[in-house]
């Protein structure tokens, strides 16, 4: 028996889609699977004790979705909480513990060392956990399990990441209580692919899911959507890094949804790159039920777009907004302010242009989260010791440790860059403003979804959809 535990307790709750897929794959392989969902528990410690009093699994898997809240200046690390959960589990079972999930995959070896877990899976968990389970009950040839982080004679070893070329995921979605998540979280997730071949300097998605696009069969995607719809879940959020990369696969997915007329009853939101996006794709998406797109805009400054390695131009941002308007889809543009070379003028140019093209809302995130093994880490390191780099922002002392929340904000923005950005926004409600790190006693107006009480209350009262769209409506935008 394998027991899978959801450790993500962020509010509003987000259904653990990865754990759902892994559990489905293990069940299909004939393995008994138990689920412990700490996110839906009022007393996680008691839930763990009660479960292990009644069950004796041979392997305990913990899903770890985020290493921190990804926002400056809140900079809340979630790794210590994971270690605490593992300590509690150690006291009530001797079964080996394995970690997985996107957050884990980004910093796999570091998290294994920090938490002292027995195993970890970097990459896809569906097949890896089955192979590990069989090896634990067989010859223990751990080197044969793709993605496995394990110990040999006290030394941590890392197998090649588990990024199988053929991506086939369970479509039943019946391992997790998705109905409760839908009621409390307002949406449920679905993946159409994994991996990303883009070159953005800051993104950790290639670390977790690979640098090649691994595409699901559109028919499987539609089957999964139909199964969720049959349960009463009619609002989905596609969890792909960028739904339209590659463009033809996105169009094929929409074609299959439209062939089954799912757009009549299903609403969905997605993340997208600004390009490629055209009339044909926009029309197919709208017909298939897409009601909102969050674009990775980053900036409208040519120099910053080049720095971030974005292939789009600012005119492409304007085109994306027009296409969404023409096809009755709400549009958000996510900005990433404060990167290498950012100045007050580049931010002013960006905010002015975003106001001009008038999306429904825009996220003005300030600070670039530095993930290990990214180009962003290399750039920061090239500027000299990170400990004394004036562009580095952190809330811990000592040596820089990228397992802890560490951010880059261009020193050219001055001592209070958040105030600079807010002054440029000038009260425009379409913008989610950055939090202030100064003692200004200003209520937060950003889009940090973690423990967002306004968001949770709106969902409790019936709001459904992407969180940016719910918050937009609360503001009257």
Brief descriptors of the model:
single chain, pyruvate-formate lyase- activating enzyme, alpha/beta, 477 residues, Rossmann fold, 7-stranded parallel beta sheet, 18 helices, 7-stranded mixed beta sheet
Report a brief summary of the structure:
Helices cover 36% and strands 17% of the residues. By secondary structure, the protein is of the alpha/beta class.
Strand elements, count: 19
CATH architecture tag of the largest domain: Alpha-Beta Horseshoe
Helix-strand makeup class:
alpha/beta
Spans of at least 5 consecutive residues whose pLDDT stays below 50 are none
CATH superfamily of the largest domain: tm_1862 like domain
What is the tally of helical segments? 18
Largest sheet: 7 strands, mixed
Query: Proportion of β residues?
Result: 15-25%
Helix content: 25-40%
Radius of gyration: 22 Å
From the spread of the alpha carbons, the general shape counts as: globular
């Amino acid at each position: 028996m394998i027991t899978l535990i959801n450790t993500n307790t962020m509010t509003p709750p987000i259904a653990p889609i990865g754990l759902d897929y892994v559990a489905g794959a293990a069940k299909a392989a004939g393995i008994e699977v138990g689920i412990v969902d700490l996110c839906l528990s009022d007393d996680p410690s008691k839930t763990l004790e009660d479960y292990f009093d009644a069950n004796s699994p041979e392997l305990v898997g913990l899903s770890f979705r985020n290493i921190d809240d990804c926002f400056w200046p809140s900079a809340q690390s979630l790794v210590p909480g994971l270690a605490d959960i593992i300590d509690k589990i150690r006291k009530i079972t001797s079964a080996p513990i394995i970690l997985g999930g996107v957050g884990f995959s980004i910093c796999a070896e570091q998290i294994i060392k920090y938490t002292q877990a027995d195993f970890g899976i970097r990459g896809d968990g569906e097949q890896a956990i089955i192979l590990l389970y069989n090896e634990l009950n067989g010859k223990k040839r751990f080197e044969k399990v793709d993605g496995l982080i394990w110990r040999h004679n006290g030394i941590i070893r890392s197998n090649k990441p588990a990024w199988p070329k053929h991506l086939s995921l369970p479509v039943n979605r019946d391992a997790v209580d998705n109905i409760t998540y839908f009621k409390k979280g307002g949406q449920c997730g679905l993946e159409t692919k994994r991996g990303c071949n883009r070159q953005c300097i800051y993104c950790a998605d290639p670390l977790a899911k690979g640098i090649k696009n691994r595409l699901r069969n559109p028919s499987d995607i539609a089957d999964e959507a139909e199964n969720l719809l049959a349960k009463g879940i009619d609002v989905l959020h596609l969890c792909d890094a960028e739904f339209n990369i590659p463009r033809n696969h996105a169009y094929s997915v929409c074609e299959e949804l439209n062939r089954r007329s799912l757009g009549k009853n299903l609403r969905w939101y997605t993340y997208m790159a600004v390009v490629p996006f055209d009339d044909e794709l926009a029309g197919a998406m709208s017909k298939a039920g897409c009601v909102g797109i969050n674009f990775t805009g980053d900036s409208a400054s040519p120099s910053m777009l080049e720095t971030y390695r974005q292939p789009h131009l600012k005119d492409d941002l304007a085109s994306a907004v027009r296409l969404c308007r023409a096809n009755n889809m709400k549009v958000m543009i996510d900005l990433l302010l404060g990167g290498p070379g950012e100045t007050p003028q580049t931010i002013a140019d960006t905010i002015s242009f975003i106001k001009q093209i008038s999306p429904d809302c825009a996220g003005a995130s300030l600070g670039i989260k530095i993930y290990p093994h990214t180009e962003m880490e290399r750039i920061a390191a090239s500027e000299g010791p990170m400990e004394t780099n004036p562009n580095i922002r952190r809330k811990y002392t000592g040596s820089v440790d990228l397992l802890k929340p560490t951010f880059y904000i261009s020193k050219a923005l001055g001592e209070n860059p958040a105030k600079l950005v807010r002054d440029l926004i000038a009260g425009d409600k379409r913008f989610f403003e950055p939090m202030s790190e100064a003692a200004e006693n200003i209520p937060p107006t950003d889009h940090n979804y973690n423990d967002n009480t306004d968001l949770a209350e709106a969902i409790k009262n019936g709001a459904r959809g992407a969180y940016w769209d719910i918050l937009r409506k609360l503001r009257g935008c």
